[in-house]
């Protein structure tokens, strides 16, 4: 991992980071409020939310970019690359596999836009505009993949106990293990390829020439 990036400490970078953090925190909060406006307890709503990759990843975005806005030392180019790749996965999977499956209104619709569209788009802009390039290694995507892999295991184990899965493409009860594993493998392949592209772009923009 690399050292904290001085390029993210300028006022424009910190303002955009604050906006990204605000979008993520607001999306999570609005979604929580929309679900809590009913008979379920707050703890039950929180437990339900933490079953979704969208929520856990936007929570990562919220924490990381709150740190960037506050000039925290942990906000390295490596961590920002990992955050970008995972929140981009949220946006792409939503656009390709989930969009239109549910009719959303009010707070749920606002949260959906913030969590699936706004935070991925703004994170891409931030990375392109402010993150120091040329520091990522070819091993980075393998380490970045640990988070979505661990989430997949968590979601499948949790779903087997609760008999409810967070996404239709990993709904073992409905589509079976074979299709679930195929879907997971395809998404993992897309994630790995996107990681390689991000590293290539980082090296290209950073003028890195070493192998």
Quickly count the helices. Answer: 8
What is the approximate shape?
globular
Helix fraction, binned, reads over 70%
Radius of gyration: 18 Å
Query: Main β-sheet: number of strands, strand sense, barrel status?
Result: none
- How many distinct beta strands? 0
Compute the separation of the termini in Å: 17 Å
H/E series: HHHHHHHH
> How would you state the average pLDDT, rounded?
90
The helix/strand class is mainly alpha
Strand content: under 5%
**Low-pLDDT residue spans:** none
Structure write-up:
With 211 residues, the chain is an all-alpha fold. The chain is built from 8 helices and no strands. The chain has helices spanning 11-36, 42-49, 53-69, 77-98, 106-130, 140-144, 146-162, 172-206. Helix 3 crosses helix 5 (106-130) and helix 4 (77-98) packs across helix 8.
Structure keywords:
211 residues; mainly alpha
What's this entry about, in short?
By secondary structure, the chain is mainly alpha-helical. The chain is 73% helix and 0% strand. Helix 3 (53-69) packs antiparallel against helix 4 (77-98).
SSE inventory with pairings:
Layout: H1 11-36, H2 42-49, H3 53-69, H4 77-98, H5 106-130, H6 140-144, H7 146-162, H8 172-206
Helix pairs in contact: 1-3, 1-5, 3-4, 3-5, 4-5, 4-8, 7-8
